[in-house]
Amino acid sequence: xxxxxxxxxxxxxxxxxxxxxxxxxxxxxxxxxxxxxxxxxxxxxxxxxxxxxxxxxxxxxxxxxxxxxxxxxxxxxxxxxxxxxxxxxxxxxxxxxxxxxxxxxxxxxxxxxx
Amino acid sequence: xxxxxxxxxxxxxxxxxxxxxxxxxxxxxxxxxxxxxxxxxxxxxxxxxxxxxxxxxxxxxxxxxxxxxxxxxxxxxxxxxxxxxxxxxxxxxxxxxxxxxxxxxxxxxxxxxx
DNA sequence: ATAATGTATGATAATTTTTATTAAACTTTA
DNA sequence: TAAAGTTTAATAAAAATTATCATACATTAT
Lengths: 114, 114
Prior knowledge:
Chain A is of the alpha+beta class. The first copy, chain A, has helices at residues 7-17, 23-35, 80-86, 104-112; strands spanning 40-42, 50-52, 59-63, 69-72, 91-102.
């Protein structure tokens, strides 16, 4: 899937097929899958972690109103890691860009109120 | 300060001066201060939120080993918001870059083991 | 087949982090 | 200096995640 569900949202989806599955099983398998590189665990803004079926490097945008997370399809900035390495004594491993904005659904909601 | 303490770390620091202060008071005031723009609330990777005394736009790096968060002093990419706006139907509000890496302390730790 | 061993599960408890509640202490205003 | 307003510490509650463990399920060996 292309959405970025939280563990609870995955639980709700999976339960439609496997009604007796436990939330712990969902957490455990999401963790195992992200450890083995099948999925990504996103530590984006908000209170919950989110999971991403696309493991190739890409960026995200998070709606400041509803918290929804979507992919942002812009070019990955490979060179920025070297730039960062020059002005830091960390060994740079990678980077992630998180945009914040208002999704079209929430923009429409806002319009309704005026 | 230039570090990026969690609420609990702030609590520990403040308690040295005000031993009877409560953790709730720390959370409440950090929240109020970030709402009014005196400080930043960082929603970076890891399980806890962190707070930043520097409110001017800048980027961060997080140590994958110990979780420490530092500033990365590279130029802020103003134009990237417009790039993102073109390939998204979100109304873009801003962005944040979080690098991941290994801090010098943890690099030194690693050396010790060899 | 079936017994023995290994692995994953659901149920539940425990932990961690943050937010909410509230009576009392402190401040400001009248 | 009394009344009203605000902030606090203490505590409870909520939200998210991780740990525990007996049992169910699957695999392998006999």
